[in-house]
Backbone:
């Protein structure tokens, strides 16, 4: 009889520490892969588990290895069919895979896949954007639950004993099992005492005394056997975790897609949208995204069209705002939805339209929106020139009025990915608790 | 068939396993192993684990306890990916050369498979571990688990104290030198964990005892003395060095001018582990062959005795033939000679030669052909050989014909491969000796030695690679590894490649020329 040990219940993930060390090691590669993924993937899936291929070079473990085709070597192989001694076989063309060395033909090109959890993805994603840790923590926080009363249960901890229900049960049981009451016993005891006190008890009295004694003893035994509170009477309050009711949110992505918006501009805009979406998703149970693109006219489109298809035309920003207004009126009544809007543009607009935009925002949109963010994507060379908020494009100048008027309107210029974060800083600073939590 | 007993003798009937069936099967196997095969083994400890735990065990090179390092995480990811995609099945078992001998069984296995695995690992491998001279000489089965426990906690302590990055830097470098971290000709001193721990405790206590905060307040007048101290220390070390030294990790541990005590200790740990696995590298064919032969023989005996059913036997045979499947060289599945097949075939062949030899066998193996005692012959072979000598001694012409082995020569300068020998009268000897060469670690491992280090002067370390048969090293990994050596040595490291026949210098490279790693 050997020593059998069942290890199946031992903790798993013994190699979790190794995994973390490996992640740290492959960080740069992973970050690059995730940024690529965010660039090409859908906004809504940006924070899900990701399968990331890693090229092996960043994580090689070198040792002294024999060069595969150098010098003289002689191998023994099985399964000869037609060869005779002295036969010559032409060497396959370089890289022709099958050779006589099975040992080290690995050319290291094949990537291997790595599945990252949501938390790991977010870590890597935010690292690039230089978010402070506090915000990262906030964004990753899961939905909280509130305990809600949900009846009673037989088990629980002593602090949640329901006294009322317990006594209720105990009472019923006592009646059903006919537990003698104290009053009954007292009555018999009093009678017994009275009879015993008699000077010359008659035979009938003596008999009565004997009966009373027996009865009393029976009652006392019954009382002992049927306890006042039995463990089966005890009930505990039951609590069920209930998600804190969160309101719905809708996020409007507005983007200028006229010719002046190139790949770089769209990429920056996309990153901004992704961040805003992550933020909203954390805060609200249900988030919708509406994509509105515009040139000289605006239309609601799906995500792919939004980012990848081009359309030529002029630039009339107000059309996008009107379209947004239309969608809100049709589908997202502001009493049911928290409305967030993010507009990305390079700042171009036809003359006189900017005033119109301001008036739309001022009169209606800003009253409906929780938050409106305008990001202007500029050239890195221009970022010097536009250091001061005073100079800017026509749209920028016009929006400054709105910004002065409404605290929930934020505007920034973005030239590189690391500029994106400050916009969020404003979001947190200006509207500390836009969502009603619990 | 007629000598098979009734079904009442069956050890188990269901294909699901339970611990009662397991221990009944174990006892039946043990009876055959002891009485008929005369095996001698360490006490067994059999542990049932899940597939995730098996993957965990895989990634830490099969040890139940291992320190943490990113490369294990990498292997884990790699293996679990292969497994999930169905490209690789998990081993049904994992066995550890320790006393007691630990065997892991996967919970997914059927009862038939568990029986097979117990016969294979808990008796086959176990016997080999206990009796083979290499294992006896180089490993200390009784102490390895305790030593790993020590290694794990020591490295964890180092991480706490010096930061994971510093520890990782040392481990990375040490791992890259693992193949160059074994003594091949010297008996490694016995591991004793108690002694090991006492040594370290003593060192720490000494530090604590001699530490006095007052020293800090003394004026720094001793500066002139300090270098002299270093000087004497270095010259002591210099005189202690013995050249050449092929155990590079040992060399660095003892003589590196820059390493701190804890870093040397880590090198030592890596070195001890490399040494522990050294016999396994040399006995793959024999070890697997022995285990496969044992399970094959035992399962057949169980069947003959009526202890397992036909259904079970069919399942066993199917798994067995998967294990010993050998695709031909031109098959897309071909990935070298299967050590299970080669070992198993050779041992079955020895059994055949002992019992029913042909004239050819009597000619080739006069010592044991027809001696009738195949069991004794095998026990002796298992105990006294490694792959290289085993093949050189026991590979028979009959088996060369069966497996249709041929040898193929590759000369870097020629545009063709040449078939140098096939399974014919002229070829047997050559096929056999080439095959043996290919299992000789002395031949397959590059010959690299430390030949000079000037501790008192410029502290340059010189390494010599003796090039046999013109086989050079891959340049990129060579340079990376040299950088790692430099990290441990702290000063310039140069490497020279010398051809063993012509004595010509083929290449010379120094870490100075390599530049900083980007």
Residues:
């Amino acid at each position: 009889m050997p020593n059998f040990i069942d290890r199946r219940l031992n903790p798993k993930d013994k190699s979790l520490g190794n995994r973390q060390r490996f992640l740290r090691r492959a960080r740069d590669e992973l970050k690059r892969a995730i940024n690529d993924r965010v660039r090409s993937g859908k906004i809504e899936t940006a924070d899900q588990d990701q399968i990331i291929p890693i090229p092996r070079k960043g994580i090689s473990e070198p040792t002294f290895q024999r060069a595969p085709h150098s010098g003289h070597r002689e191998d023994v192989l099985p399964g000869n069919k037609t060869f005779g001694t002295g036969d010559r076989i032409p060497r396959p063309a370089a890289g022709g895979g099958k050779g006589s060395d099975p040992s080290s033909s690995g050319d290291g090109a094949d990537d291997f896949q790595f599945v990252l959890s949501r938390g790991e993805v977010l870590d890597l994603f935010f690292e690039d954007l230089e978010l402070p840790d506090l915000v990262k923590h906030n964004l990753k926080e899961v939905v909280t639950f509130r305990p809600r009363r949900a009846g009673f249960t037989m088990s629980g901890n002593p602090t949640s004993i329901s006294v009322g229900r317990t006594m209720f049960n105990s009472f019923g049981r006592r009646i059903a099992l006919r537990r003698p009451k104290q009053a009954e016993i007292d009555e018999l005891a009093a009678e017994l005492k009275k009879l015993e006190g008699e000077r010359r008890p008659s035979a009938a009295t003596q008999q009565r005394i004997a009966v009373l004694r027996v009865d009393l003893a029976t009652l006392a035994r019954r009382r002992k056997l049927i306890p006042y509170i039995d463990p089966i009477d005890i009930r505990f309050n039951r609590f069920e975790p209930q998600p804190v009711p969160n309101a719905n949110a809708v996020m409007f992505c507005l983007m200028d897609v006229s010719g002046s918006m190139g790949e770089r501009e769209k990429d920056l805009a996309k990153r901004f949208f992704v961040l805003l979406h992550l933020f909203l998703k954390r805060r609200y149970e249900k988030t919708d995204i509406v994509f509105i693109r515009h040139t000289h006219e605006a239309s609601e489109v799906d995500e792919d069209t939004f980012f990848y298809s081009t359309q030529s035309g002029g630039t009339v920003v107000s059309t996008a705002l009107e379209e947004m207004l239309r969608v809100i009126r049709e589908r997202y009544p502001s009493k049911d939805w928290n409305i967030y809007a993010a507009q990305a543009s390079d700042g171009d607009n036809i003359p006189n339209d900017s005033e119109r935009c301001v008036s739309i925002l001022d009169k209606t949109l800003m009253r409906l929106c929780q938050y409106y963010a305008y990001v202007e994507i500029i050239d890195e060379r221009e970022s010097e020139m536009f250091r001061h908020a005073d100079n800017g494009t026509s749209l920028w100048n016009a929006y400054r009025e709105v910004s002065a008027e409404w605290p929930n309107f934020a505007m920034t210029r973005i030239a590189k990915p690391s500029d994106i974060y400050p916009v969020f800083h404003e979001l947190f600073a200006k509207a500390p608790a836009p969502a009603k939590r619990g | 068939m007629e000598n098979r007993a009734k079904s009442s003798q069956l050890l188990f009937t269901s294909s699901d396993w339970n611990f009662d069936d397991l221990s009944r099967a174990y006892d039946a196997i043990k009876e055959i192993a002891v009485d008929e095969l005369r095996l001698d083994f360490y006490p067994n400890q059999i542990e049932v684990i899940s597939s995730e735990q098996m993957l965990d065990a895989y990634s830490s090179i099969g040890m139940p306890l291992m320190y943490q390092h990113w490369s294990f995480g990498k292997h884990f990811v790699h293996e679990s990916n292969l497994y999930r995609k169905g490209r690789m099945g998990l081993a049904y078992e994992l066995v550890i050369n320790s006393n007691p001998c630990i065997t892991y069984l996967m919970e997914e296995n059927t009862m038939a498979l568990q029986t097979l695995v117990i016969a294979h690992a808990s008796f086959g491998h176990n016997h080999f571990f206990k009796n083979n001279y290499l294992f006896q000489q180089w490993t200390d089965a009784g102490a390895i688990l305790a030593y790993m426990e020590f290694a794990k906690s020591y490295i964890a302590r180092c991480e706490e104290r010096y930061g994971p990055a510093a520890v990782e830097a040392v481990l990375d470098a040490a791992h890259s030198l693992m193949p160059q971290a074994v003594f091949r000709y010297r008996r490694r001193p016995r591991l004793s964990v108690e002694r090991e721990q006492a040594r370290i405790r003593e060192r720490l206590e000494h530090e604590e005892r001699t530490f006095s905060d007052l020293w800090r307040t003394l004026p720094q007048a001793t500066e002139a003395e300090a270098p002299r101290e270093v000087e004497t220390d270095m010259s002591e070390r210099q005189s202690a060095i013995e050249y050449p030294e092929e155990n590079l990790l040992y060399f660095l541990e003892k003589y590196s001018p820059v390493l701190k005590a804890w870093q040397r200790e880590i090198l030592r740990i890596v070195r001890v582990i490399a040494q522990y696995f050294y016999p396994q590298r040399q006995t793959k064919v024999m070890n697997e062959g022995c285990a496969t032969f044992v399970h094959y023989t035992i399962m057949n005996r169980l069947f003959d005795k009526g202890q397992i059913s036909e259904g079970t036997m069919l399942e066993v045979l199917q798994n067995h033939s998967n294990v010993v499947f050998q695709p031909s060289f031109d098959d897309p599945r071909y990935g070298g000679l299967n050590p299970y097949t080669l070992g198993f075939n050779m041992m079955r062949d020895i059994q055949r030669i002992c019992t029913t030899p042909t004239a050819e066998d009597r000619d080739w193996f006069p010592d044991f052909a027809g001696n009738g005692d195949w069991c004794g012959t095998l026990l002796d072979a298992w105990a006294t050989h490694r792959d290289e000598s085993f093949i050189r001694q026991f590979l028979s012409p009959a088996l060369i014909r069966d497996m249709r082995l041929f040898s193929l020569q590759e000369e870097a300068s020629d545009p063709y491969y040449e078939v140098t020998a096939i399974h014919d009268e002229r070829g047997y000897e050559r096929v056999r000796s080439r095959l043996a060469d290919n299992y000789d670690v002395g031949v397959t491992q590059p010959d690299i030695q430390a030949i000079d280090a000037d501790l008192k002067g410029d502290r340059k370390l010189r390494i010599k690679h003796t090039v046999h048969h013109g086989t050079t090293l891959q340049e990129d990994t060579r340079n990376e590894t040299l950088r790692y050596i430099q990290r441990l040595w702290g000063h310039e490291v140069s490497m020279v490649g010398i051809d063993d026949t012509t004595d010509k210098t083929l290449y010379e490279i120094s870490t100075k020329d390599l530049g900083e790693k980007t």
Remarks:
- The longest strand of chain B covers residues 447-453.
